[in-house]
Every structure is written in structure tokens, then in C-alpha cells.
Amino acid sequence: MGIAENLARVQTRIQEATIAAGRPVGSVRLLAASKRTDAQGIIETIGLGHTLFGENRAQALRDKYDIVAPKHPEADWHFIGYLQKNKVKYIVGRASMVHSLDSLDLAMALSKRIDQQRQQGVTVEPLSVLVQIKLGTEDTKTGIEPEPALQLCEQLMRMPNLRLQGLMNIAPLEGEPERWFSEMATLAERARREGFPIQEMSMGMSGDMEAAIQYGSTIVRVGSDIYWA
């Protein structure tokens, strides 16, 4: 199947899962994780009416954005992978949201880059960020554990160049995904009680999006079922 058929099938899954969870249709956004396609694939997806994309590598976001954005400024770009401090220059001014913020050092690097751009006369809006939560014991999973994550949220609230929007998680392979999404939902509710603006929950991918939606995901990151299926 092509991108059009795959995209339609994923959109149907999201709608059905949203209804099954008793949530309003439209309350879950699809982010097309576009690492497995090129700029032309993104342009084709935009032609189908979908405009939200996520990249895992900073240079890939830069390269694809610079090709696509001049002709399709309506596209919205998020960064969803591990981000090194020396790569923030590729993200600031291109991405509207970073899903993978996991340290104060990275937050400060993003904020500093925004200041640098503004000093050069570039108009840069505050950057929306999600704090990536690490659950389970897998060494390959990045993120910050729940308790220090809440401390990081507090620090982010004092940084005017960044806008805390919510939390992100990649479910560990150990155990069922429902376990991890349930923990995320509990953490999000605790964060809200403590006064943090947790509006977005970036959870769920091709294989577990239904479970993520059941536990409150507002953004599902789907790549292989759109560009590889």
C-alpha cells in the first residue's frame, strides 16, 4: 500500500481508539514520524492533508525542513529523538516542539540558542517542550525518572524561552504497554495537582497507540505504519 492508504488506515485506528476510550473525536493528534521517508514523502503526505511531522535526528529535521518549508509553511515540525546540546542549532527556529527534553542542561542550551538567534535579529517564538519520562530498566531508553522530572518541570516554569506543555514516554519492551501508560497517566495527574500545565501526553507508536490513547495520549507518533506498511 502507498502513503495515502496507510495514512487513512492509521487515522481510522486513532478515531476508533478515541471513541472506545470515551474521549472526544479529534482529541488525539497523529504525528507522522518521518525518519523512514524523504522530503518528497513528506510533501506527498502534506498533499493528503496531513501537516504534523516528527524527526528523530537533528540534521535530518534541518535538511527536510529546509527543502519542504519554503513551499509548505503550513507543515508543523516536532523533534522527537535524543537531542545533544551541540545539535540544538538545527532545531531552534525550525521545530515548534521538542518531545525529548530530559535535563536542565539541554533546556538551558535550547534557551541560550533562542537568545542567540534573537540577538542576530531573527524572530524566534518560545519553544514548546515535553519532558521525556524514563520508566522501566532498559538501558537503551533515554529520559528522566519521574521524581527528578517534576523538579525539572519546576525549573522549566522559570524559563521564559521555553513553554512546558506536557510529558512524553516511549513504553519499555518489558511488560505490557498498558502498565507504562497507566504510570504516565498517574504521573501526569500528580503534575497537574502540583500546578504544572500538562496539556500534552506524547505516548504511543504504531504497535501500541490504542493502549496509549486509552490512558490519555494526546499525540501518537506513528512512522512505520505510514511509511513502511
Verbal overview:
- The protein has one domain: Alanine racemase (TIM Barrel).
- Helix content is 40%, strand content 17%.
- The chain has helices spanning 3-20, 39-47, 58-68, 104-119, 146-156, 177-193, 209-214, 224-227; strands at 29-33, 52-55, 76-79, 97-101, 127-133, 162-169, 200-202, 219-222.
Could you outline the blueprint of secondary structure elements for this entry?
Blueprint: H1 3-20, E1 29-33, H2 39-47, E2 52-55, H3 58-68, E3 76-79, E4 97-101, H4 104-119, E5 127-133, H5 146-156, E6 162-169, H6 177-193, E7 200-202, H7 209-214, E8 219-222, H8 224-227
Parallel strand pairs: 1-2, 1-8, 2-3, 3-4, 4-5, 5-6, 6-7
Helix pairs in contact: 2-3
Rg, Å, rounded: 17 Å
Provide the CATH architecture.
Answer: Alpha-Beta Barrel
Major beta-sheet overview:
8 strands, parallel
CATH homologous superfamily (4th level) name: Alanine racemase
Which descriptor suits the 3D outline? globular
Helix and strand sequence: HEHEHEEHEHEHEHEH
Query: What value does the average pLDDT take?
Result: 96
Low-confidence stretches: none
CATH topology (level 3) name: TIM Barrel
The domain count comes to: 1
What is the CATH class? Alpha Beta
Strand proportion? 15-25%
Largest sheet strand order: 7-6-5-4-3-2-1-8
Distance between the termini: 7 Å
The DSSP helix count reads: 8
The total of beta strands comes to 8
- As a percent range, the share of helical residues equals 40-55%
Oligomer status: single chain
